[in-house]
């Protein structure tokens, strides 16, 4: 195959154990997810010559690769927050297409919940307090406060309501109800969401992501290996990545996120439009993230995210099912969630989700096109991946 011309497919995906895990290490979760993903692919692990990982604390890919018994000749340790995994997937796809690798394993594992429970705080709420960030950190302007500011600006500028934000949490929980592995499955109402304690105005507790333990892995491979795989391929159709800001003073418009750039690039490179997408997996650390990412990816006009997401549109039976596993708001959120978006998107395209959670098109078939879009920091970075099945 001519270097630079190879098509790239996701050939294996898997979750590690997730939820409440008090007796495992992040390394063990990496290994569990990696073994399962390789087994899911049906390929021999000896074909894996690329590896990418990033995580909270000191989980450098060289350490994790050694733990997994890998000796990769291509490696990536990009760390741009929650969008890291979509960015890594883009890097890996480019490397495989160029002939620099044949099969790249992306892996993640975190015991974020167990660490907090045991008093082992391994990560702060910012990318650091050096440089320009030193002028914000002393005032307690941490991650959640920055998201809250952005949400309030959207509400002021476009009339987005508290009820519209809360309804996103309600719909996400409705999707989680069909996922036996989700941490929280009990149905919610808008009143229950709004009646909870305020964490950072306008976010109540149920509009903020949960904290869990867990991990997952995704294996990408060149097209010549696809005939040997155990599952139908899910092709990388297009990717887009970008970074924006770290200090709020450098963010030009609180109502427009870097997904507006990464999405435009990914859709353009894939040659498809948002209106062709049948299922979407979007980073949802807070309800506002879902709303504004829908706008910036082009599913609706700027300012119309609240109305677009209403009336059950985001549920599994809705017009655009979003976060079909229950998302970070209800299913799992072990520190960084970007790789979970890719796993769920692939499973939906393969038609592998549990009964009641599998999205079906008008013809009763699984969806053909999906988007996974990750956000890092406080809208500091974005990676968007368009996925397609044959």
Can you walk me through this structure?
- The structure is a single chain.
- The protein is of the alpha/beta class.
- The protein has one domain (8-118, 209-389): Thiolase/Chalcone synthase (Peroxisomal Thiolase, Chain A, domain 1, 3-Layer(aba) Sandwich).
- It contains twelve helices and eleven strands.
- It has helices at residues 26-41, 61-68, 84-98, 112-117, 143-158, 162-176, 190-194, 259-270, 287-296, 305-308, 327-331, 338-350; strands at residues 8-15, 50-53, 74-76, 103-110, 198-200, 203-204, 214-222, 234-243, 279-282, 369-376, 381-389.
- A nine-stranded mixed beta sheet has the order 3-2-4-7-1-8-11-10-9, sandwiched between helices. The protein has a two-stranded antiparallel sheet with strand order 5-6.
- Helix 6 (162-176) packs across helix 9.
- The longest helix has 16 residues, at 26-41.
- The mean pLDDT is 93.
Shape: globular
Identify the strand order in the major beta sheet: 3-2-4-7-1-8-11-10-9
- Total count of helical runs of at least 4 residues: 12
| CATH-defined fold name | Peroxisomal Thiolase, Chain A, domain 1
CATH class: Alpha Beta
Question: Which percent band covers the strand fraction?
Answer: 15-25%
Biggest sheet, open or closed, and with what strands and sense? Answer: 9 strands, mixed
Low-confidence stretches: none
Radius of gyration: 19 Å
User: Would you tell me the structural class of the helices and strands?
Assistant: alpha/beta
Second-tier CATH architecture = 3-Layer(aba) Sandwich
